[in-house]
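Researcher: Re-running this chain for the archive, since the previous output was lost when a drive failed. Same request as before.
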Amino acid sequence: MAVVAAAAEAELRAAGTPERAEHEKAYLKSAVEHAGTPVPVIRQLAKRIRREHGGLDAAVTFTLATELWAGPLHERRMLAVVLLGSGADTMVPSDLIRLEPLLRDSRTWALVDGLAGDVAATIVLHHATDSTVDEVLRRWGCDDDFWVRRASLLAHLKSLGSKGDFEGWERFCGLADAMLDEREFFVRKAIGWVLREAGKHRPEAVVDFVAPRVSRISGVTIREAVRYLGPVDRDALMSAYRNS
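Model: Regenerated structure tokens:
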């Protein structure tokens, strides 16, 4: 896989520009090197790699992703995230544990959100009530690293969103309630993001969660949470928040 990763890096560098690299590195406050490769190029490269190597099963995908991650280039890591996401439907609960070192080494939403909101969320979608899923997500939710705590929330995006059957709602509520008083923006935003998606098809559940917590909830969280609620519920919650 080292040969595949090296060839991929050469393509990523060739497709990038110094101007884009400088802008993205500054925007993400990144400590690693950037090539300035557009995301569509990264996605197309991931599709071609998967096609040329016979689809790649989960084990091989993780091996390649780990090899890509070892290089000090942001776009290599982005490619790893896309490859993992494209193979997540065949992953099993224990793969959350294999995903964890990459999450811990991400240190930016540009990588964490794909690993958590796509890869982990797909695993949770298919295995929402599995004991390993429950143990890992609850452990992530208590982690000292706020990026890992964010991941514990975003991993519920698909199971509580339009593609899921709402399994894991109680777990999410417990995690979100424990983090509701945090001042970290990326945690507050993640709570609101999941509530927003849940509100698309279970608005009453979102109202029941938010209403008794309006005095604790942050502005960034509630503005996301009420986005897809009906106007009566949305206005009532925002009024209660402003008056709390």
